[in-house]
């Protein structure tokens, strides 16, 4: 499990030397709401790397279903959230478009786990992210971003449609809502914690 312990800046300065900072990825298809989620939950001003969608990009960027979209992430999003006293999450939002796949290996280094955002109108767009984390055995939860007007499916239906391993959590969320996003992150931390404990027990037995 990747973590850092925060450094005390000096004796008696009151700094919490037992604080944990965990790295989490926010992944999923183009325009599914990754930047929105990181921005909604972050308690620091999120770092964004948005560029305008261009006429040239129309040939390769599938904007079907996200017609209102004018910008896209070209490197990453970055934010931070304190889940509870002494536990912060550093959030790294991935770029959604295929041509930025080469960045994923770098971004996923040392990650505790990932949120794979899904839109039920374009569920297939999250297949590559699901495959990526399954193959690398990085714990992930699927968070269905419930866009207005999209038909609502139950978590069980989504789990079946994505052919997820048993136990992989599926949660419904609104990426624009801080509490909803925080709930997703808590589910991920709990799930990843259980997965890591199970793996540790397997290696010692
Ligand atoms: N109605 C609704 N709109 C949303 C929701 N989440 C995001 N949006 C809108 O959908 C668009 C896409 O959001 P982004 O957060 O940029 O998506 P992204 O996944 O970061 O996109 P890329 O980085 O380009 O892959 C934006 O115009 C958002 O305002 C949602 O939950 N409901
Ligand atoms: Mg983005």
Automatic annotation (TrEMBL):
UniProt xrefs under Pfam families: ATP_bind_1
Residue stretches in coiled coil: none
Keywords: GTP-binding, Hydrolase, Nucleotide-binding, Receptor
InterPro entries: Gliding_Motility_GTPase, Gpn, P-loop_NTPase
GO molecular function ontology, one term from the record: hydrolase activity
Family: Belongs to the GPN-loop GTPase family.
Name of the featured protein: Signal recognition particle receptor subunit beta
């Amino acid at each position: 499990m990747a973590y850092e312990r925060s450094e005390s800046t000096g004796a008696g300065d009151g700094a919490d030397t037992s604080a944990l900072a965990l790295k989490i990825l926010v992944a999923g298809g183009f325009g599914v709401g990754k930047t929105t989620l990181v921005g909604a939950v972050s308690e620091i001003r999120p770092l964004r790397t948005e560029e305008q969608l261009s006429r040239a990009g129309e040939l390769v960027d599938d904007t079907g279903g996200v017609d209102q979209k004018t910008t896209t992430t070209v490197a990453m999003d970055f934010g931070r959230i304190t889940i509870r006293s002494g536990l912060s999450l550093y959030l790294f939002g991935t770029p959604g478009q295929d041509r930025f796949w080469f960045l994923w290996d770098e971004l996923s280094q040392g990650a505790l786990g990932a949120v794979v955002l899904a839109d039920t109108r374009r569920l297939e767009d999250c297949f590559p992210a699901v495959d990526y984390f399954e193959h690398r055995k990085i714990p992930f939860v699927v968070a269905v971003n419930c866009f207005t007007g999209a038909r609502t499916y139950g978590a069980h239906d989504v789990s079946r449609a994505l052919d997820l391993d048993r136990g992989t959590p599926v949660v419904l969320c609104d990426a624009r809502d801080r509490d909803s996003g925080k709930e997703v992150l808590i589910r991920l931390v709990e799930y990843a914690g259980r997965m890591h404990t199970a793996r540790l027990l397997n290696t010692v037995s």
